[in-house]
Amino acid sequence: LMERKTRVKINRKEIMLAKLRKSCSCTPKKLKNFVMDFLPVLRWLPKYQCKEYIWGDVMSGLVIGIILVPQAIAYSLLAGLKPIYSLYTSFFANIIYFLMGTSRHVSVGIFSLISLMVGQVVDRELLLAGFDLNDDAPPALGDGSLQNDSHSNTTAFNLTIAGMNAECGKECYAIGIATALTFVAGVYQVLMGIFRLGFVSMYLSESVLDGFATGASLTILTAQVKYLIGIKIPRSQGHGMLVITWINIFRNISQANLCDVITSAICIIVLVTAKELGDRYKHKLKFPLPTELVVIVVATLVSHYGKLNEVYASSVSGAIPTGFIPPKVPHVNLMLRVAIDALPLAIVSFVFTVSLSEMCAKKYAYTIRANQEMFAVGFCNIIPSFFHSFATSAALAKTLVKTSTGCQTQVSGVISAMVVLLVLLFLAPLFYSLQKCVLACIIIVSLRGALRKFRDVPARYHVNKVDTLVWIVTMSASALISTEIGLLVGIVFSILCIIVRTQRPRTALLGQIQDTSFYEDDLEYENLSSVPKVKIFRFEAPLYYANRNYFLKSLYRLTSLDPNLEAARRKKYEKKEKQHLKKGDHTTANGLGIGGTTLQLVPKQIDFQALVVDCSSISFLDTTGVNTLKEILKDYKDLNISVLLACCNPSVIDSLKRGGYFGKDFANMQEMLFYSIHNAVQFAKDQK
């Protein structure tokens, strides 16, 4: 017999008070550790092995910087903002993550999905403010005085929206919304870190994240088509944006700009070919080909000297200023407008950053601190929001490039930031003539990885049908409704799938493997022998209120015996027999003599005298679960059938004890509970 260890009673109040005193105390050593934990760079930078690490960090930093510049300019289209703000975002994010991040290889900065989510909020608020979402149309506002400044060639408004009583144009209001959204998202992430709410990411399964990324990629692709073919249609807003945008595209397809179509076709062919060759020969290349940069430089030169904007009316990026705009505090009233939108943005940003950090840490054998990562990405949003930047996250594609080019530490992030700074200070005006269709091509080609997930659907379906269904539902909702609702639908649907799987789990009757003490599912394996007079029932889920009825129905169906119906039938028959005897009739209701009465009590003979319940898959019991087991114990006992429990874990045993299953003082526990199925079967055989 196995005896349980005596549990030592823990005074939780004392423990909590001790932890509180420890956390509230302030000593020089503790203060130093706090600062070192908050800024991990202070721990690893003094130990930096310059000769061993510097070459890899410089190379990877330069490569990422070269990739980052064209991507930052391109992703500004997704966010509905000017390219200069994307460059600010890329610069500040790399610097802050260098100081606060715990991952050595993650590339934090502008990310397509995050840019899309920011852009959707910006577009909605611009529309509510009365601005025209058409990029090339002059802004219009029904409530305000229009003032044209011929020197700056911009349109300004006296806005009284959201409490902003300042002269502000469409661009000014857009970046105001973006910075307010970014600041609130960063605050959410820091609060999640303080209260250790990182467990929220557990509810975003791989299927949900993949489906969300693929659905959002379809939305991004759709939003870029108008730039590819050079048509001017309003940016769709609200639910069903993907369908509405495609309808508008086909309605205006006759207005396509031939110059943009040809440019787009050439750029996509060049980019895809270079990417495919890079993937095929990546082991032979020391660093990835800077195809995006080459395409942007060549396209800008052709557009400038060919005067594509003036001659063919091809849409271009326009003037990109140099230097830094003075910092500005995000507007509080705008924060209140976007507070709800910031929550999914904060969660998605954190989840992508932590999952990529953990992937790199596992690959290169070091550890990260998920809570510190939440602080890092939170401050990568809070601090840059004062400098006209928008939300950031870790990006998979740039992280893979970073690791493949010899990155050793986050010093590479500083090198990338220096490349972006060079563009910000000196080179930004050179991109004036860059066509928007070229930027759209870069965005679309960067979506190859997410769109390739469609090819994995058959393999995913073969591995797990439920996960495939979660992926399809999340992807469809993200693409056809909206990204935020798609993410929510994916989380809710995946949780419902888990609930349904526990509500209707697998059940089985077990047979004995010949000449062994092991038992398995009779329907799944051949050559199993049934145990005479004993039924062995397995239930592969926790037993709780939601699956109680299914447990009972499955038990009655597999054993071919419902004890309640059998008991009712017996009572009914006994009542009829008593009535016949009172009348002096010596024959039973079925016309037999009294001697045949015993046989008639059980017309269908019960072929077992013991029921063994295999509890090895029952992880816990709630009150309903305990009462259900007590119910079947009583019902079968009325039919002279004993119920034996086998393979219960300590948690289940404790629940049964507290629920009074074993009676007073647990007197019958040794005859009701067994540590293996075989022991229970042997006990049942030995019973008279």
UniProtKB/TrEMBL annotation:
Protein localization: Apical cell membrane
InterPro entries the UniProt entry points to: S04_transporter_CS, SLC26A/SulP_dom, SLC26A/SulP_fam, STAS_dom, STAS_dom_sf
Residue stretches spanning the membrane: 53-77, 106-122, 173-195, 207-229, 249-273, 334-354, 375-397, 409-427, 471-500
Alphabetized PROSITE patterns for the sequence: SLC26A, STAS
Top-rank taxon: Eukaryota
The entry's keywords: Cell membrane, Glycoprotein, Membrane, Phosphoprotein, Transmembrane, Transmembrane helix, Transport
GO MF entry, a single one: secondary active sulfate transmembrane transporter activity
Catalytic activity: nitrate(in) + chloride(out) = nitrate(out) + chloride(in); sulfate(out) + 2 chloride(in) = sulfate(in) + 2 chloride(out); iodide(in) + chloride(out) = iodide(out) + chloride(in); oxalate(in) + sulfate(out) = oxalate(out) + sulfate(in)
GO CC annotations, alphabetized: apical plasma membrane
Gene3D superfamilies (UniProt xref): STAS domain
Classification via Pfam families: STAS (PF01740), Sulfate_transp (PF00916)
Predominant location category: membrane
Membrane topology note: Multi-pass membrane protein
Annotated STAS domain residues: 524-684
Keyword Acyltransferase: no
PANTHER family recorded: SULFATE TRANSPORTER
The family this protein is said to belong to: Belongs to the SLC26A/SulP transporter (TC 2.A.53) family.
Protein name per its UniProtKB record: Sulfate transporter
Source organism of the structure: Phaethon lepturus (White-tailed tropicbird)
